């Protein structure tokens, strides 16, 4: 059996550095080895066509950490047999970019070989630094592959975007992460069967990875090192927890616990227990729950349990959902917590929930009838002959902006669906609503 630290070789005889991190050693060597991103790598996808046809290309790869941006850059370079040069926007400037472009010109002129220039975190480049790439990209001296975790339409200059194909990478699914782990456990470049992984430990790795393959492999490597040091042939949950210093959260995203914790979060918010709500939010975040699922539940809660008692609660929940989509995780847990605190401490009312529920029930029960003639569309020829709009009174012509007038169908006259509470902003709404209804119903 190959030991944990044997030195496997790449195809073509290029050895893999045994001291390199597991995530580097397991980097795919072809498009077919890439896990996930099927929307980009399918048989008829633009990326596969560009690579297999060896066409000059420049790409902007946009996605969360650990989804394969660097991997795709390496694979494209290998598949097209081009020179690969990597720069990081954290420590490279215009001088370094120009040096790479000069080298690429020489390589193209004297060896006929094109260069792939991979720039990681391109959003950290200034406008001047990004502009320094334009002529080389336009003249196809380099094939630029720029990676970013931020929306490129906000962080990359328009001229560079117009010369590039923008590809959005998605977080890996649980099955994708499992496939990455299984390959690393058995592949000669990885752990080569030196250790196995218990089912419980595997679930924990998938959970803490949160769709990030690099995070999963880093944790696996740490657990394997701990197991080998202890003389164990299997990485169990206890060994893994000790190695990665993160306790397993008893949480099954596909089972009852998923719904139990989500239910507890919403009920804690409804019950105004902000501390319990934050606890359940933390359990979901640490367990790797999809932040979009959490955000959706908070948006629903803002209307269902708070409603008009605090109209700004819905704004906060929607803003948190947009913020999570914009910045991703792990930082996305800050706006989620912001929303949870706002919702849990806000005054509560289910008056909106009751109002729409009763209204829908009446419609389904057949209560309705014709729209009053005065409210019907009168903007077409012949509408007046039908009596449409003739009795309508324009509210803005009245001093208070409201006039006695029938708006609901006859069957629903006097029906009060919305009954505000005396809590929060609804106390004022209730007082105003009483006056509004009194004026409106003088016509009846």
Automatic annotation (TrEMBL):
Top-level taxon of origin: Bacteria
Gene Ontology molecular function: ATP binding; ATP hydrolysis activity; DNA binding; enzyme activator activity; single-stranded DNA helicase activity
InterPro entries for the chain: AAA+_ATPase, AAA_assoc_2, AAA_ATPase_RarA/MGS1/WRNIP1, ATPase_AAA_core, DNA_pol3_clamp-load_cplx_C, MgsA_C, P-loop_NTPase
Keyword vocabulary terms for this entry: ATP-binding, Nucleotide-binding
Region of interest: Disordered: 1-20
GO biological process: DNA synthesis involved in DNA repair; DNA-templated DNA replication
One Pfam family recorded for the sequence: AAA_assoc_2
Gene3D superfamilies named among the record's database cross-references: 1.10.8.60, 1.20.272.10, DNA polymerase III clamp loader subunits, C-terminal domain (1.10.3710.10), P-loop containing nucleotide triphosphate hydrolases (3.40.50.300)
Domain AAA+ ATPase per the UniProt entry, residue ranges: 55-172
Stored PANTHER family: ATPASE WRNIP1, WERNER HELICASE-INTERACTING PROTEIN 1 FAMILY MEMBER
Annotated family: Belongs to the AAA ATPase family. RarA/MGS1/WRNIP1 subfamily.
Name of the protein this chain belongs to: Putative ATPase
Organism: Geodermatophilus aquaeductus
């Amino acid at each position: 059996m190959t030991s944990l630290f044997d030195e496997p070789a790449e195809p073509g005889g290029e050895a893999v550095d045994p001291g390199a991190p597991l995530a580097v050693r397991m980097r795919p060597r072809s498009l077919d080895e890439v896990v996930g991103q099927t929307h980009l790598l399918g048989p008829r996808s633009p990326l596969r066509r560009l690579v297999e046809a060896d066409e000059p290309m420049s790409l902007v790869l946009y996605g969360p950490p650990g989804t394969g941006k660097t991997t795709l850059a390496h694979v494209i370079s290998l598949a097209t047999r081009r020179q690969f040069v990597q720069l990081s926007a954290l420590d490279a400037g215009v001088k370094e970019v120009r040096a790479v472009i000069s080298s690429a010109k020489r390589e193209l002129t004297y060896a006929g070989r094109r260069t792939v220039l991979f720039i990681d975190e391109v959003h950290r480049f200034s406008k001047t630094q990004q502009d320094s790439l334009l002529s080389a990209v336009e003249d196809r001296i380099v094939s630029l592959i720029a990676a970013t975790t931020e929306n490129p339409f906000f962080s990359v200059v328009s001229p560079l975007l117009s010369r590039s194909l923008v590809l959005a990478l998605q977080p890996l699914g649980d099955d994708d992460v499992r496939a990455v782990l299984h390959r690393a456990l058995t592949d000669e470049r990885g752990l080569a069967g030196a250790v196995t992984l218990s089912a419980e430990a595997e679930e924990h790795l998938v959970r803490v990875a949160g769709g990030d393959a690099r995070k999963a492999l880093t944790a696996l490597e740490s657990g394997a090192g701990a197991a080998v040091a202890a003389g164990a042939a299997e990485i169990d949950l206890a060994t893994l927890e000790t190695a990665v210093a993160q306790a397993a959260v008893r949480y099954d995203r596909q089972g009852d616990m998923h719904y139990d914790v989500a239910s507890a979060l919403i009920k804690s918010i409804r019950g105004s227990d902000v501390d319990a709500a934050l606890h359940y939010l933390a359990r979901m975040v640490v367990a790797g729950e999809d932040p979009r699922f959490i955000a959706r539940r908070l948006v629903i809660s803002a209307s269902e349990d708070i409603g008009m008692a605090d109209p700004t609660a819905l704004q906060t929940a929607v803003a948190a959902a947009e913020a999570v989509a914009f910045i991703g995780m792990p930082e996305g847990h800050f706006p989620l917590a912001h929303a949870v605190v706002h919702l849990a401490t806000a005054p509560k009312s289910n008056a909106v929930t009751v109002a729409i529920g009763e209204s829908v029930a009446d419609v389904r029960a057949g209560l309705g009838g014709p729209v009053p003639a005065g409210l019907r569309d009168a903007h077409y020829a012949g509408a007046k002959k039908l009596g449409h709009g003739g009795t309508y009174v324009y509210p803005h012509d009245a001093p208070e902006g409201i006039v006695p007038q029938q708006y609901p169908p006859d069957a629903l006259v006097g029906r009060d669906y919305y009954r505000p509470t005396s809590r929060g902003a609804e106390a004022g709404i209730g007082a105003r609503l009483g006056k509004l209804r009194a004026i409106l119903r003088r016509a009846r």
